[in-house]
Amino acid sequence: MEGDEFAVPRSATDAAAAEALIRASAATLVLAPGTSRWSRALPMAAARLNGVIDTHIVGLETADASIQLKRWFYRQRIEGTVARTRRPWIVLTEPGAFPAVDGLTARTPVQTEVLRVEVAPRTTVLGTVSESAGEQTIRPDAELLFVAGAAGPRSRKTGRSISPMPPSAFRASCTKRSARSFSKSLVDQAGEGEAILPFLTHLHQVGQTGSTPRHKKGLATCCHGEEPHVVGWRFINERRAVNLDASCGWARGKADVLYVADAFDVMRELNALLD
Questions:
Q1: CA quadruple 104, 109, 114, 120: dihedral sign
Q2: CA 122 to chain centre
Q3: Mutual angle of helices 36-48 and 11-25, in 10-degree steps
Q4: For residues 169 and 195, is the Cβ–Cβ distance under 8 A?
Q5: Cis before residue 88, ω within 30 degrees of 0?
Q6: What band does 163 get if pLDDT is binned at 50, 70 and 90?
Q7: Contact 186, 150 (CB under 8 A)
Q8: Is 227 left (phi over 0), alpha (psi -120 to 50) or beta?
Q9: Which of 61, 104, 202, 230 is deepest in the core (most CB within 10 A)?
Q10: In what order do the strands lie in the sheet with 238-242?
Q11: CA gap 65, 54 in Å, rounded
Q12: First vs last Cα of the chain: how many Å apart?
């Protein structure tokens, strides 16, 4: 599909284009990345085609001539398998859930056909503003994701309150090949005017109500390791945590390595190694 009306993300034109392509190709199975653009448009196309759609798919396999999809249910606590006979079947795969394929070439001849789609956009795009992936965001290209929890303002080892929390204890390690993030409770404290970290914003929030990062390594401090903390970490390849409680939630099979130590002591050692 091409044309000025399809050049920018718009639910009306995207859904119409997807519907026309699926009808023209008579496709019974449609695979698409689970981006924000397709997550809005393809459910509308599925309804117009009298089909079915599944989103947030993290696994795909075949068994007995049947296609089976895997996805998480109940706030990422249960992994289930989905199989459908209704067609067309539209599948939105979770970005990052499948490894990239190199050197794959198409062997099927491609035919070009002009499809006429009459769509009258109800909105006008005046321009776009994109946030740069810098210090105020969870940078996806970072080698390490660092997460701090709500227990940060107080040292559990000494019981001494640290107010405000020294930004240097966290900023140094978070600006060298790593990205920083925080749990919802710590973000809420900063939003209520508490003296936590001066550079803390909602863009740094991960967990059950935040973003779901996919970094290769992750380090969590001052987090209990319970489900709201871990749910945003399910795609981190190597997870390490710091907690004075050796029986915390991280120790129950949710972290690859658990350091039983004071978080501020670990951060000082980490900063020294990075220096």
A1: negative
A2: 31
A3: 60
A4: no
A5: yes
A6: very low
A7: yes
A8: alpha
A9: 230
A10: 178-182, 144-148, 217-221, 238-242, 257-259
A11: 19
A12: 52
**Residues 80-113 pLDDT 10s:** 999 999 999 999 998 888 888 777 776 777 777 7
Q: How far apart are CA 183 and CA 147, in angstroms?
A: 7
Which two structure tokens, joined as six digits, stand for 42? 């393809």
Instruction: In whole angstroms, give the CA distance from residue 35 to residue 38.
Output: 5
pLDDT (tens digit per residue) in 5-41: 777 788 888 898 899 899 988 999 999 999 889 999 9
> Parallel, antiparallel, or unpaired for β 217-221 and 78-82?
unpaired
* Choice between 31 and 248, residue whose per-residue pLDDT is larger: 31
pTM: 0.48
Residue 138 confidence (pLDDT): 72
Cβ neighbors of 221 (< 8 A, separation 6 or more) are 146, 147, 148, 149, 152, 241, 242, 243, 263, 266, 267
pLDDT: is 93 or 263 the higher one?
Answer: 93
Least Cα distance to 266 among 248, 242, 240 occurs for 242
